[in-house]
Amino acid sequence: MHRTLSIVIPLLIAGLSVALWAMMNQPSVEPPWPTRIQGYSFQPMRADQDPQRRIYPSLTEIDQDLSLLQGEAHAIRTYSVDGPLGQIPALASAHGLNVSLGAWIGPDAKANQAELERLIDILREPHRNIVRVFVGNEAILREDVEVSELMRDLDRIRRLTEIPVGTAEPWHVWLKYPELAEHVDFIAIHLLPYWEGVPIDQAVDFSFKKLDEVQQAFPDKEVIIGEVGWPSHGRRNRGAEPSQANQTRFLRRVLARAEQEGTVYYVMEAFDQLWKTKIEGSIGSYWGVYDAEREPKFALTQPVVRIPNWHELAALSVGIAVLLLLLLYRDSSSLSSSGKGFLALITYAVSTAAVLLVYQYTQQYMTPLTTVVGVLLLIGGIGVLILLSAEAHEWAESLWLKRWRRAFPRREVPDAWLPMVSLHVPAYNEPPALLIETLDALAALNYPRFEVLVIDNNTKDPAVWEPVRAHCAQLNRRLMLKGQSHGQRFRFFHVSPLAGFKAGALNFALRETDPKAAIVAVIDADYLVSPNWLHDLIPAFFDDEVAIVQAPQDYRDGEENAFKAMCLAEYRGFFHIGMVTRNERNAIIQHGTMTMIRRNVLEAVGSWSEWCITEDAELGLRVFEAGHKALYIPATYGRGLIPDTFADFKKQRFRWAYGAVRVLIAHRRELLGLRRTRLTSGQRWHFLSGWLPWFADGFNLLFNFAALAWTIAMVAAPETITPPYMSIALVPLVLFGFKMIKSFVLYRRRVDATWRQAFAAGLAGLALSHTIARASWAGVFSGKLGFFRTPKLATSVALFRALMDAREEALLLFAFLLGAFAVLQRPDAYMIDVRVWAAVLLVQAVPYAAAILVSLISALPRLPANLVGTLREMRSSSSSA
């Protein structure tokens, strides 16, 4: 039954996915394209040509374009007579096309006069196919000339020809300057409802309403439509969405109505004009009925479909989803039907969104820049796909496992059978009272056979380490007096110099370990262990395949203040969610405290690596590569101290993230299966996907710098630089929302946290994003980071110092807030893509704001912990232990 559901659920969701594709692409029946339209706006520029730089097509190319339109239109409308464009009337005559001849009027008076002189020369030639003359196009709208200047030019041309003379402006310009109508033979209005943000279903009625308003304002003048059109691609303008389907719908509807009402019109335009990107942004390139390669962009008579090839795209999205599910469903026998359904739903949704994004991006004209950006976006999109899949997988396994397959074994073993344990406590410059407290807790262990080795590593001040040595001797005497120990159970070593940081100290301890010790256990110098720690967990080693037994890191000072309560909540997510799910596939991260390992395995794999600052995780990976097992129990057996300041909190996480990257780089061949080991696919999955969010923070930092650079360009050149595609800009918003919802849900369900605690944990985690990003890149490019000891019992910093501790984050926060404000000052700030981009900038600023807030909270040690609430000790549930 379970196997059947594993097949049926994905098939049902695949069917739902295809049904959604079909629903989005329901064909709509539209009026057919006229057999022969009245006119096209005609500019024969090819992709690499630009009239602003006087790079014009050849006469042969112009003739080819006219040949393409022959029989499709009665007339064409031109915009300039400069260069070869002045030959268009003669060339059009050979193809049976009338010409509405246009002369360009711009801000350069001298150029305007030359253009008019050229127009006059052409009008003196015997061209019978010139049916109208346009003097200027939107010259008043652009404020290139005064109304009086344009009227003077119109009067001049009208005196020289009997052909009707007019000019073209949007409908509202005519209503604003009615005196202009007295100097034309006809009024040409532009009806481009996209620019006015009119939704497609209202666009035709809106256009003819404006046409009617102009006709009523000038009843004695012929009013024609000089331009009417809709873009096939580009930015959404309020309710107006550019798309090939909407272009088809609008033009077929408006042309049918214009033909019915007998209105003269010119379709905007015959061919896509790539050069218009410089003056109108990317939207300017997509108004043609034909694309830049002279291929028709839409069907003229068939029903209109939003994405004509949606069947192929739907199949591709289903195929990608199936491949992802095959990966996610591997080794998922204990996942319930709800969990599998959730994974299938997320996978199909993400795959469909990815396919749509790629499709939309490839519909634009590709330049070297957009190609490079597209490749980068594709790489980033694959990363997002993998990241979301990994996050969804952890979500599903945390909530919907039917049973935990690797329950921690509870065994009652006679004391005589228990092996000897050597406890190693590395220390560097630790406060003596702190370490003495740790040793007292170890002395209280109810385990029959153990030793404690304290290795003080390079502490310079004898006043720091000598009290600890004296206390070890005192403990030995006390134990001997009680008859609980014979010999030196507590041994103290002060070693200076000693290379290799913490790993060097642990390797030294290993060399000094009692030969009879079978198990090595490690705790940090600030940990107070429970008396039954060893007694409860050592029996797990009676399974000969188990090499590591790990209890979580937990903390005892979370009630001290609000900052530490936040940190405690943040730590808990990894130890009560991530480690629990990793344990299911024998893929836990060995962390250096509260860990136990077989001595012979430790020696066989080469002991602790002194090149690595996260020697614990690296050792655990080597143990897995050798084919051994590890067990994790999510129950508190020891508690340490939380960093006192945000700066120390960041340094600790920097070390962890940096070390993780170095471990992945060092073991890349093993993790990718390029070097033979005994790693399972599940272990590879967890080690790669588990640290993927840290790499994601690193790439997010690159995205942030790119976003700021793009924002600067948008502000500096608002006429030409538009926001990134809205669908692409929405990705970081969706990703941020998904991760936040996942965090809240899992904290509430798995950590048993309140909403306040879940929020505090999320805030503390966000505050570390920039630190993790920097650490990730440092790990990629540098292998020489020194070991940083997290200070204990440090004095709290002042507010100013707290701000300085987050100065990088503060600078980036200011940059993002300023960027969001600046883009909203653009003239097109009313457009939804500008507002979405501002929202993206604000969301990207959230982690930096969180860092400043958490740093300030850390500087207020009297801020009570009950503002957050302190999490209880971790207790293993019946399902996992």
Automatic annotation (TrEMBL):
<keyword id="KW-0460">Magnesium</keyword>
<feature type="transmembrane region" description="Helical">
    <location>
        <begin position="836"/>
        <end position="860"/>
    </location>
</feature>
<dbReference type="GO" id="GO:0005886">
    <property type="term" value="C:plasma membrane"/>
</dbReference>
<dbReference type="GO" id="GO:0004553">
    <property type="term" value="F:hydrolase activity, hydrolyzing O-glycosyl compounds"/>
</dbReference>
<feature type="domain" description="Glycosyltransferase 2-like">
    <location>
        <begin position="519"/>
        <end position="716"/>
    </location>
</feature>
<keyword id="KW-0328">Glycosyltransferase</keyword>
<comment type="pathway">
    <text>Glycan metabolism.</text>
</comment>
<keyword id="KW-0812">Transmembrane</keyword>
<dbReference type="InterPro" id="IPR050321">
    <property type="entry name" value="Glycosyltr_2/OpgH_subfam"/>
</dbReference>
<dbReference type="GO" id="GO:0005975">
    <property type="term" value="P:carbohydrate metabolic process"/>
</dbReference>
<keyword id="KW-0378">Hydrolase</keyword>
<dbReference type="InterPro" id="IPR029044">
    <property type="entry name" value="Nucleotide-diphossugar_trans"/>
</dbReference>
<feature type="transmembrane region" description="Helical">
    <location>
        <begin position="341"/>
        <end position="359"/>
    </location>
</feature>
<feature type="transmembrane region" description="Helical">
    <location>
        <begin position="725"/>
        <end position="747"/>
    </location>
</feature>
<dbReference type="Pfam" id="PF13632">
    <property type="entry name" value="Glyco_trans_2_3"/>
</dbReference>
<keyword id="KW-1133">Transmembrane helix</keyword>
<keyword id="KW-0808">Transferase</keyword>
<feature type="transmembrane region" description="Helical">
    <location>
        <begin position="310"/>
        <end position="329"/>
    </location>
</feature>
<dbReference type="GO" id="GO:0016758">
    <property type="term" value="F:hexosyltransferase activity"/>
</dbReference>
<dbReference type="InterPro" id="IPR000490">
    <property type="entry name" value="Glyco_hydro_17"/>
</dbReference>
<feature type="transmembrane region" description="Helical">
    <location>
        <begin position="685"/>
        <end position="713"/>
    </location>
</feature>
<dbReference type="InterPro" id="IPR001173">
    <property type="entry name" value="Glyco_trans_2-like"/>
</dbReference>
<dbReference type="InterPro" id="IPR017853">
    <property type="entry name" value="GH"/>
</dbReference>
<feature type="transmembrane region" description="Helical">
    <location>
        <begin position="798"/>
        <end position="824"/>
    </location>
</feature>
<feature type="transmembrane region" description="Helical">
    <location>
        <begin position="759"/>
        <end position="778"/>
    </location>
</feature>
<keyword id="KW-0472">Membrane</keyword>
<protein>
    <recommendedName>
        <fullName>Beta-monoglucosyldiacylglycerol synthase</fullName>
        <ecNumber>2.4.1.336</ecNumber>
    </recommendedName>
</protein>
<feature type="transmembrane region" description="Helical">
    <location>
        <begin position="365"/>
        <end position="388"/>
    </location>
</feature>
